[in-house]
Structures are given as structure tokens and as C-alpha cells.
What does this fold into?
Amino acid sequence: MTNNNMASANNVIEVTSTSLPTAEPRHMTKEAMQKDFDYMMAQKMTQALLDSGLITQGEFDEISAKNKKKFSPYMAELLP
It folds into this structure.
């Protein structure tokens, strides 16, 4: 074993079922799907404004944050 392999072997953390966070499963409803669709459409329009030079990157970021808050997409915590 080389020094690099030994170093990485020393940094291994064992993952067990008790060390993982637990979360309640969420179910996608028709309402949630509609919110996601509305959010995606709003973001596409906002992106088109940015691409056309009609708004700045800062304005895009501000509008995106408002869209995320208004539409509360299903996977909001994963979105930038």
C-alpha cells in the first residue's frame, strides 16, 4: 500500500443506519406538481429576460428568489 492509499484509508468514516439523518417521506400531490410547473415556467421567462439583456444577473437572482418563495417548488431545498 502506498502512502496515498494509507492516508485515504485513515480518513474513512463508517456509515451506519443510526448515523444517517431520518426524514419523513413526502408525497407529490397534484397541487405540488402545479406549483413546480408554475415555478419552472416563471424561471424560463426570467431566464429569457436575462438572455435578452433586459434584466441584469442581480435582478435575475432577486426574481428567482421571489419565484422560489412564491411557488414553493417541491424540491426547493435542492434549488440554487
Q: What stands out?
A: The two ends are 41 Å apart (CA to CA). The helical segments are 3-10, 30-51, 57-71.
